[in-house]
């Protein structure tokens, strides 16, 4: 009888699955990294997290709703300039700029998402690209507010004395904390009824509408949430860089973000993080070759990855794991 109860208790004992263990290990490594790396490497990792936040939004829009956007660099810029203007003109604390940047870009995304409902595919991509193209000249025109072509130079968040952290380490942990919070929110959203509705819209709009899904409502919300995440990334980027300029937010940024999420893996949990690393490190590592190398290598790697792994780096990792796991299991037997 005792044995039976013990075995029943053991069956009810909670167990950790592999994704949970992988996330826990990754967080431990992420927390230890800034104490083991040089300041410049910590700065690079911080920018990877910034890009990952923006790519979460783009993944939500394209990977889970099926809407194509080439204008997310504009939302990135709006979030960056919202934070910069609040700091430069009103001397607002850094952390107070984040909720304002979220609200501004959410409303902007919602406002642009409603008229975009009539468009899809390349037509929607063209309209969003137009937004990214004209935003730069618009920022230069209002120089009294935005600093014009010269931009705005800002202070960076100073680490509290009680932390004992250097500035680069403090910025990294701020970016890491914000990334984790948004990742949890996105995962929770996708597992909810709303997430299932977004996936239904992506897979078959007619079938989703038949099942009672309000297409216009969910598409508009997805666009707004996606813009909000891009704005959050822009705000954190302003803290990390300490400078904003219209030339930093050209249409190339929008195309780079799109390439990053496609390479990372559309519709995957790890796609934004892998895409952020690809977006930062490929141009950086090839910069030493010559001035043309980053663009050339970036393009060639996109072609190679799309050929080898059509579902992106996240899909390639998953496929490799499924191939290796049976081999390891056989060896143990």
From TrEMBL:
Gene Ontology MF term list: branched-chain amino acid transmembrane transporter activity
Membrane topology, record value: Multi-pass membrane protein
Entry annotated with the keyword Transmembrane helix: yes
Keyword Membrane on entry: yes
Localization per Swiss-Prot or TrEMBL: Cell membrane
Keywords per UniProt: Cell membrane, Membrane, Transmembrane, Transmembrane helix
GO cellular component: plasma membrane
Transmembrane domains' residue ranges: 20-37, 43-62, 69-90, 96-114, 121-139, 170-190, 221-245, 257-283, 295-317
Entry protein name: Amino acid/amide ABC transporter membrane protein 2 (HAAT family)
Classification lineage: Bacteria, Bacillati, Actinomycetota, Actinomycetes, Streptosporangiales
């Amino acid at each position: 009888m005792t044995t039976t109860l013990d075995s029943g208790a053991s069956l009810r004992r909670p167990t950790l699955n592999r994704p949970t263990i992988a996330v826990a290990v990754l967080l431990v490594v992420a927390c230890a990294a800034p104490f083991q790396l040089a300041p410049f490497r910590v700065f690079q990792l911080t920018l990877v997290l910034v890009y990952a936040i923006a790519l979460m939004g783009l993944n939500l829009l394209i990977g889970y709703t099926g809407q194509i956007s080439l204008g997310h660099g504009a939302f990135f810029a709006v979030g960056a300039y919202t934070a910069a203007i609040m700091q430069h003109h009103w001397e607002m604390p850094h952390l107070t700029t984040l909720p304002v940047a979220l609200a501004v870009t959410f409303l902007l995304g919602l406002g642009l998402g409603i008229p975009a409902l009539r468009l899809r595919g390349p037509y929607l991509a063209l309209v969003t690209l137009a937004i990214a193209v004209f935003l730069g000249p618009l920022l230069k025109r209002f120089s009294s507010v935005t600093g014009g072509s010269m931009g705005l130079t800002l202070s960076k968040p100073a680490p509290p004395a009680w932390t004992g952290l250097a500035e680069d380490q403090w910025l990294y942990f701020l970016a890491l904390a914000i990334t984790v919070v948004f990742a949890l929110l996105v995962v929770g959203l996708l597992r909810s009824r709303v997430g299932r509705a977004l996936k239904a819209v992506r897979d078959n709009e007619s079938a989703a509408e038949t099942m009672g899904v309000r297409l216009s409502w969910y598409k508009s919300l997805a666009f707004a949430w996606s813009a909000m995440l891009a704005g959050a990334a822009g705000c954190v980027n302003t803290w990390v860089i300490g400078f904003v300029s219209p030339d930093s937010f050209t249409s190339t940024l929008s195309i780079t973000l799109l390439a990053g999420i496609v390479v990372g893996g559309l519709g995957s949990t790890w796609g934004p993080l892998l895409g952020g690393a690809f977006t930062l490190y490929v141009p950086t590592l090839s910069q030493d070759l010559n001035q043309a190398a980053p663009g050339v290598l970036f393009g060639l790697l996109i072609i190679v990855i799309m050929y080898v792994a059509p579902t992106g780096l996240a899909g390639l990792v998953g496929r490799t794991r499924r191939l290796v796991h049976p081999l390891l299991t056989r060896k143990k037997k």
